[in-house]
Specification:
The protein is an alpha+beta fold. It is 35% helix and 21% strand. It has helices spanning 48-52, 157-165, 175-186, 191-208, 211-221, 227-236, 244-253, 259-276, 278-282; strands at residues 2-4, 15-17, 20-22, 37-44, 56-63, 67-72, 75-80, 90-93, 110-114, 117-120, 123-131. The longest helix has 18 residues, at 191-208.
Length: 283
Amino acid sequence: MWDVGFVSSDRVAALGFGGIPQAVRPLSVRGYGPGVVKLAGAASWAVRDLLGGPPRSGRLVASFPRCAYIDVGGRLVALEAADGLRLPCAVTLAVPARQRPLAGLAPGDEVTAGDGRFVVGDLVVDVGRWWAPAQPREAAVPAPGASGERVSAPETGWDRLVLGLLGLGPGLTPAGDDLLAGLLVGLSARPDLRDPLAAAVQRHAPARTTWLSAELLLLAATGLAAPAVVAVADALAGHGDDDALPRALPALLAVGHTSGPALARGLLLAAATASRTEGVAAA
């Protein structure tokens, strides 16, 4: 975990890993006044193409104490405090939410991302490290078309399931979507089941749920999710000791108002489905 002090408007505070101070180069941001806050951050490999390439514009969609959701070129980037969920599309800041690093951000704020830097309103984040997003241990590589471009196909049983759940419930990530996300992550080791489900989600999510939730579902279709989700998926798959599931489950159930329980239901449904069809897949 990052160990860092809050950064003032004209300098970068000392950064440390494991209590060992590390040198951080000063930021140079032309055109920004004394109200600018500059922070160090680390980003997921899933968004490296957005942050490591040339600058591009975006906008802030929603902001909360631990996380802000940002649209960069139609893709989701989550800007998280150090004690956030660590979503697979996140830029993780070097300070916890109690220091209010996202205070002052508001929906509609302009964003610039690229060249290893993330600028949101008066907040400037210098990305100095990259981390691998969490994924179940036995996750298979998605088949072409399982995520990405929207495709058309005849309606299947998976389509009926998806249409019955997408957008069901309130909030930015409705409970029905969270159940589907848990189901996708839980089936990541069974491409024979996951890929047709992912294709159905891909066909219908853009028109049936929020943009933010649809983006998280596309990530779940590749097995990428927050560590709390992956820990339960691995425990249900038999990885770890006998106490792996009771250790992992409370952290997942604590996610959001309804998201944690809905994600858990999706993971349990995936485990039951995979178990019932295991012989068929082997054949």
